[in-house]
UniProtKB/TrEMBL annotation:
This is Phosphatase NudJ. InterPro entries: NUDIX_hydrolase-like_dom_sf (IPR015797), NUDIX_hydrolase_dom (IPR000086), NudJ (IPR033713). The lineage of its organism: Bacteria, Pseudomonadati, Pseudomonadota, Betaproteobacteria, Burkholderiales. Monomer. It is an enzyme of class 3 (hydrolase). Its cofactor is Mg(2+). Keywords: Hydrolase, Magnesium. SUPFAM superfamilies: Nudix (SSF55811). Belongs to the Nudix hydrolase family. NudJ subfamily. It comes from Lampropedia puyangensis. Signal peptide: none annotated. It comes from the Bacteria. One of its GO terms (molecular function) is nucleoside diphosphate phosphatase activity.
């Protein structure tokens, strides 16, 4: 039987303030990379909740998603590794909230930085993902979809049963 292909679901925030965008600088095995605040969808949360959480963890900013910029699919195949990972990314824009300067940033995040679109484009060789610039370009082009386009079944929020509860 063939192994089932399952893309990794991620979320990202495109946050603009006065013509600059909030990015995070991450320490990766490939060196320092730039990304929009982003991360994986965790069990028990929907994409909007995940985006709020990831933005706070990576940038120390509260964030309220108000629109979906786009849904992106990309494949990560580094030449020096055996990984072959596909990501399905939900990218949101919204309202930037309070900054928590004393909050520790997520593991691997060096700092949050505000950059102009020109600075971001000039640094494409340092982007964590090939779709960082695409998400920002789509935002700049005015792409917005209502968040209620996402339908989440209530079962997503249920706590998983323990192994002993599953035995009948």
């Amino acid at each position: 039987m063939q192994k089932r292909w399952k893309p990794n679901v991620t979320v990202a925030a495109v946050i603009e303030r006065e013509g600059r965008f909030l990015l995070v600088e991450e320490d990766t095995r490939d060196g320092l990379r730039l990304n929009t605040p982003a991360g994986h969808l965790d069990p028990g949360e929907d994409p909007v909740q995940a985006c709020r959480r990831e933005t706070l963890e990576e940038s120390a900013h509260d964030f309220t998603p108000t629109a979906l910029v786009g849904i992106y699919l990309n494949r990560f195949m580094p030449s020096s590794a055996t990984q072959d990972i596909t990501y399905l990314r939900f990218t949101f824009c919204g309202t930037l909230g309070q900054h928590h300067p004393d909050r520790a940033l997520d593991y691997g995040i060096v700092r949050a930085v505000w950059m102009t679109p020109e600075e971001i484009r000039a640094a494409q060789a340092r982007h964590r993902s090939p779709i960082v610039m695409q998400c920002i370009d789509d935002y700049l082009a005015g792409k917005r979809f209502p968040i209620d386009i996402l339908n989440v079944d209530p079962s997503v929020y249920l706590q998983p049963r323990s192994a002993t509860e599953n035995v009948a």
